[in-house]
Amino acid sequence: MEIDEEKIDDVVLALLYLTLHDGGRAWKSFDWDAMNRLHEKGLIENPVGKAKSVLLTVDGLKESERLFQTFFTKDS
């Protein structure tokens, strides 16, 4: 089975939106490889460190909300 890392990254970013707190921070309890790819794409700040949360960038926050709505909201 071949894994589509782009889809994984999209879903992880959408789920980060679900755990938002403190104006743009999200719990970082996701796969480290996916978190590193999101950092490389400029969507989150550096995920390495002792903090249990990570800061989404302005672009990351917008994209996270868009993906959350795409994947997890019902059509009206």
Automatic annotation (TrEMBL):
This is DUF6429 domain-containing protein. Residues 4-74 form the DUF6429 domain. Pfam families: DUF6429. It comes from the Bacteria.
